[in-house]
Every structure is written in structure tokens, then in C-alpha cells.
Amino acid sequence: MVYQFEEYEPTPVKRGHLRLGGGNPQGGRIDVTSLYLERDGKPWIGVMGEFHFSRCPREKWYDELCKMKAGGITTVASYLFWLHHEETEGEFDFTKDRDIRAFVELTAKAGLDMVLRIGPWAHGECRNGGFPDWLLRKEFELRDNNPGYLAFVRIWFEKIYEQVKGLFYRDGGNIIAVQLENELTDRAEHLLRLKRLAQEIGYDVPLYTVTGWNSSYGAKIPLKEVLPVFSAYPDAPWAEHQDILPLSEHYVFEKKRNDAAVGADLIKAVDEDGWRLPYEEYPFATCELGPGLEPTHHRRPIVTGMDAYVLSLVKLGVGNNLIGYYMYHGGTNPLGKLSTFNETRETGYPNDYPILSYDFQAPLSEYGEVREQYRLLNLLHLFAQDFGEILAPMEAVNSVERVLPGDERSLRYCMRTDGRSGFVFVNHYQRLGRIEDREDVVIDTGSVRFPAISVRGDVAFYMPFGIRLGEEELAWATAQPLCRCGDTVFFAQIPGVNAVYRFAEGEEAAPVAGFDSAFKVGKLRVVTLSWDQARYARRLGGELYVGEDCDLYERDGEILAVAGGVFAYRKWTGSGFECFRGGCETLPAVLTLTPLEEQPLYSPYEKELHIGGERRVCWSRLAVSGPEGFVQIAYTGDVAQIYGDGKLIADDYYYGKPWRIPARLLWGKECYLAVSELREDFYREFPERVSL
Questions:
Q1: Model pTM?
Q2: Which fold does the domain 591-678 belong to in CATH?
């Protein structure tokens, strides 16, 4: 069957119409057009990952940032939670794990840009949305332009500025953006006041962003002053019920920027005064694509690698030109002196979250382990970095027939094009659903007709047409572009599809995917990696490496494996792959778990173990044989807590997965595990989806 597209109608690109953009002393510039962002005068697609420095031990920051860079992240975003820095009024703390200046400097050392999300209100599943308790006791309205509130906001903004002064892009530093507030949907005048306040203090960045979601109408924002950024999540653990959600619309190609379910507890369902955000004035940019989700006590979905990969691929297909994830790296809440820092119903919010764990099922876990999301998303990130300049100006064009989430028969596809060349995007995956296989699929872009392919199983991919590769023009390829290294272009073989390349001069090649698949057309060399090989492809120090079933990253010129131990990898030399080995033998710790008949003699955080009513709690003693590696606790229960030397050091809401803990967390401590009784009082997706 032949699949065609709607007619392409180019949209004029506006420049200079927004009060955004800026340069640095090195002559670089970042600007915003109506369709895409520009860097140094060229179209640019950034890849932004959220990582909360105050939810991670300082000694781990640099290693984790290097892992993020290896995963294709180019920009780190981080909230500054007011509560973390001024728990007691007037007593500011920017030391140790709260040292924002040290964190920004390390992001620069790792070669990453930085986005400061300065609030004042942040959410981030933090207590009071990040507001200190003492601020809530003031007699003025919060998140408002009244003098009382703004006086305290000024102090907060000033204290942050004192820490990061001199690190902004305009100074030659790496802070390229500031996010103002979060999920404030109907207060444009307040958002503008926050921007002006920040500028008065000295903040000066090319990009000021605000969250743009609020039903289909979009949030009310100060026009021309800020860049609205959007979100999309695989599920909604904050939904106030325990029923399965309708099949997500984020897995069909819809040119829709809003996810009205995000922050549904905080925003209006329908705009009352006819406001419509002028989307056509701004590029499609995201800050909260959900590659994971933090389980709430009443809803505990499981996010798989394909859930995350396809979500991001679909948004890229419909025009996303800033790829932003929340969370990319999980974290651990600090414990306050006066309270815990997690969101709870007791604090007036609609959800109960773990006291400590903010793992989020993220691509990089709370403790820095790699999940499948990390590997699959990097396929998109490598592509965005090397092909973003030609992709960003291309507009999304819909398929002839609209496909709805519940449609299990129709092919889901779209393209991005400039009218002559482009990329065809195909998705054959629906979270919690199943799509029928399609045979003899022939995609006709209007300028190119691809050969017939079969689309089977859980796959999602994109194929190029009319693309210039050096001196050669690729008419089409039934393989997924990955990245470039000099005169070599790398592709990934699409699962179930033979990789075939047709060039404009009529030359055609059909290599067998693998490390020895290279062929040449003129000066151009083309390499086709298998899908599994591509999952482990990493660009490190400007060179391409492929780990042999291991996840590589670079730290200060040294090639390391995330899992440690002995590892093997290949490096592209310009004409072929050379094999290497690295690491050293380690002795992973062994966990011993001994059930106890009585509770240990100290007072734990009892409330978390008994959410929703009194529950039976089982206790065990934990011991590890050493500090190396991870240990796994395959428990079944409601909530699990680990105490080390009488202090809460880890907790978890059970959602069907084994709990993985670094042995170093337990080593040298007297440790106990508490597991509370499991009941049928929350939404769950296990055991069917326990494979992560």
C-alpha cells in the first residue's frame, strides 16, 4: 500500500521579533526564530536533560555529568529549590551538595550548557513546590506582584546571582537560559515582573523560558519576552484515581504542543477569556519530555525504554526543535533540619511521594545506573547533533489520514521536509497497546517513493530522502541516520528492515549491518551498524566508540564503563573499527538479608510505612560483603525503607521492579530494611511490564 502526505506549504520564518537572544565575548550567538533556535548563525537543536544538583552527592556530580554528555545531552537544566537553600528564614546555604556555583563550573568542565530554573516556585515534587515553610506563613499572596512577596523573591534571586555571577553566556560562561517560575498558567504580568526583576539584579541570558502548557490554548505568557517550552509524559501518576488512562495521544503524530494532563492538579481545564498562545511566533521547544516517571503512592506506572524513545521520536517528527527531558537523571531528596523535603498530601498537595527517592525511572537512575531509555534516546541525540542544522528548518507534514491512539491497524507516519529533502518518521508502537503489523509499506513523499518495507513489532524509526552528504546526495535510504565522523556517515539498521541506500547518481548499496559494513561512494564512506550495536554507540571526545554490551563514557580523557569492571569496546579510526579493552577486575558485593522477629530499637519515619492506614511491617537486617557494585532487593510490599546507623538512607515505592542499591550505601553501617504490607490500593502495571 502507498502512503502519502498532505501538501507541504512552507511557513515564512520570522527573525528579530522576540526580545530574546544574545552573544558572548568569543563571538558566539544564540537567537530564536519563529521556527527554530540558532547558534552562531546556524539552525540548532539542543538536547536538554534535567539533573538536580541538590538531590545528588557533590562528589558524584562530575561523573554523572560526564555520563549525561556521553548520552547525547548538550544542556543541563536544574531547579534551585528555595527550601533546600533557606529552610530557616535568613539562613542561606550554598555549601556542599547545595553549591550551585561549583555545579555550574563542573557542567562547563564537562562541556555542557546550563539552564537555571530559579523559580521562585518550582514544584519538582518538592515540599510546598520548593517554597520554605516560613514563606507560607507570611500574610501576603504568593506567586503574585504584591510588594511583600516580591521583596522576598528579590532576596532569593540576588542570593542565586551572587553564587553564579560571571558564569553567564554573556561573560563567556555556559549559563545560556533562565526558567522563570513553573506551571504558572494565567499570570503573564507576574512572569514579566519576574523577568524584569532578574534583569535588574544582573541576570542576562539569551533565553528566558516559561512553561507553556494549559489545555489547548496554552499558558498566558508575556508575549515576545519569553520562550514557551512544553511537555509530554507517557502516563500521569498525579491523576487522582487508580484507573488505567486512555491510550496516550503522544504516540501518534499530532502537531500539538500541549499536554493538558501535566499539572492537572494545578491548571484550569478550559480557558475562560478566549486566550490563545500564538504558537506560530515561537519554535516548538520542550523542557519536560518524560523518559521516566516518579511513582506516587496511588499510581505506579512503569516506563520502558520504548515508551521514552518513541515519545521523543514522535515529538521530533512533529517539529520539536529543542529536546528537553524531565528527569534525565534521578536523585535523592536531602533531609531537612525541620522537615522532610518531599511532596505529600499532608502538605496540601494531591500526591504522596517517597521521602528520599526521586529516581523517576530516569535514563540515569538515582544512583547513576543506565536504563534502556539512555541507550535508545542517544540514537536521537546523536542524530540531532549532526543533522540538526538541516532538520531544524524543516517543517512537519501530516499523513493524509489522521490516526488516533486507539487505531491498531493504520500506519503512523509523518515527515519533516523543506519541500525537496527531508526525513520520514514512522511509529509502530503504542504504550499499553498493540499495533498490527503492516506489510508492503510504500512511502511516497511527493518527491521520492521509498521501496516497499515491512513494519513489524515494536519499532519506531526515521528514514532520509534527498539529503546532501558531503559531495554526494542520498536519494533515499531504508536505514536510520545516526551520526557523522569526518567523511563517514553512520546509520543504524531498522529492526526488520533491510538497509538499502540509493544515491542521486543511481548508485545503490545493500550492505549487511555490522562493524565491517562500510562502503564508499566517491569520498563518502557509509557504515551501517546493527540496532543493538547502535544502542551502545557513543561520541566521546569527538570520536565514535561502540561498547560491547557496555555503556561507555569519558572522564578527563579516560574511557570508562558505567558498570565498571573489565569491558571491551571498538573505536572508529577513519577506515574501520579497532578493538580495545579497559577497566579492571572488581569483586561485586554480596548482600545478606536476615529476617527479624522484632523491630530495631529506634524511631523510624513511621508515617511513610503506613500511608492509607495501619499496615503490617516486616524488618530485616542487611549486610554487604564490600562496597563495590550494586545489590538487588527483590521485595514485594507497599513501601520499603533502609536505615543505616539509625538514619533513613533510602526508600522506595514498590511498582514491580527489583530495588537496586549501591553497596557503598550500606557498607560499614548497621543496616535494617523495613517493608510495609502490600494492598490493592494503587494503580499498577506489573507483572506484565516489569522488564525495564
A1: 0.97
A2: Jelly Rolls (2.60.120)
